[in-house]
Amino acid sequence: MATATTPDFNKVLYAPLAEIDPEVQNIIDKETWRQFSGLELIASENLTSRATMEANGSILTNKYSEGLPNARYYGGNEYVDELEILCQKRALQAFRLDGAKWGVNVQPYSGSTANFAALTALLQPQDRLMGLGLPDGGHLTHGYYTAKKKMTASSIYFQSLPYALDPSTQFIDYEGLAKQAKIFKPRLIICGASAYPRDWDYATLRKIADEHGAYLMADIAHISGLVAAGEQANPFEYCDVVTTTTHKTLRGPRAGLIFFKRNSDKSLDLEKRVNDAVFPACQGGPHNNTIAGIATALLQATQPTWQAYAKQVIANARTLGAELVSRGYKLQTSGTDNHLVLWDLRPLKLTGSKLEKLCDLVGITINKNAVSGDASAQVPGGIRLGTSALTSRDMKEEDIKIVADFLHRAVQTALTLQNEAGSKLLKDFVRVATVQQEGKVGAQQVVDLRKEVRTFARRWPLPGVDVSSLQRPAGIEEDE
Ligand code: DSN
What we know:
EC number: 2.1.2.1
Bound molecules: D-serine
Keywords: One-carbon metabolism, Pyridoxal phosphate, Transferase
Organism: Meripilus lineatus
Pathway: One-carbon metabolism; tetrahydrofolate interconversion
CATH superfamily of the largest domain: Type I PLP-dependent aspartate aminotransferase-like (Major domain)
Cofactor: pyridoxal 5'-phosphate
């Protein structure tokens, strides 16, 4: 509360957001309404808890604390030290790690900075690394480049060679990787993906890495919540370094973590190298409010209920995949072991961009994605779907069947619109989807589906939000 003696220039410090900045408040309200009214199926997203949002929006944002607990470059860090140590402890606990064998840095701002810091720790400039190629499901930060451009720091500062999926099975081609590694002689092999619906054979990867004296790093950003629950193979048994984001299946705030192995012959100094790589090599002061949010999310991931959540995420993804297959659609690897499904649209002659656009128009949030065999990640032939967020809204298999039916109708509508557009261009597709025209039915199908999706979505809670008091905010129009 401002007092009678608060100078005018400081009164602004006490006013609530809605009062001081109604424009930003309105944008937040619209986004809340969108999340409440739609179906979130982006595999890299989730809906974090109220506690995490409270921590993330806390007064901890005011504090600088470059360095590590008990070794900071600024004063006043006694509570921040307590927080960071607690977060580290929970991170090890969530993945059932012995602190004598593993350590963790909880400061990375995101998955990308965590990965670049890990590369900085493990490699010298221009050292060689191998990661799963982006068109096969790998991540940009795993060494991606195109014929025309080295577009990520991981390919600009290091030499990289992608490994691939076996085109006949669409599983990782471990034999091919072993053969490539014999010639390329990498210093680091990265496993982990952004779009791979199957589990990993870490023992085989370790064997290949050892043949070349290479480090093995797993980026478990997508599956970390499932690994914490013991519902995926355990990368910590085989890897030197494990990175993750904290906001996907792990359901925390947006940030990253780097776990490093202690005491193995080759990695005696990994702790110092990783910590120095995060700060000062790649980052400045940690975001302590985010670290508080991570700590809170990790506490949830250590509770007995976490395994039930992770199991339900996987059961929902399996149901989603099976429902799509039962309607004649093609999935990469025909199914899933984790939270995501990769849907190959190429047999339908429909691009991922068009289905993503159509789904946006009806309140289903998905993303276009390359599928195995796509010549380029720029024109993806598929869609990636994930069930983490819908599971956080309490949906189970029977509900996911309804979602699968919405997706089926979205495809049918997209095919109708593509036909009515009479051209392959996305702008023509959007025009016929959004403007009712005599003799054309696609735009009406969009309206009908949007209404049904909205009614269904609003039956569910939204984590961190009291939906009973939600009202449609100014600036959102809805068809009646
Ligand atoms: N990790 C990416 C994704 O999977 O969506 C974003 O970088």
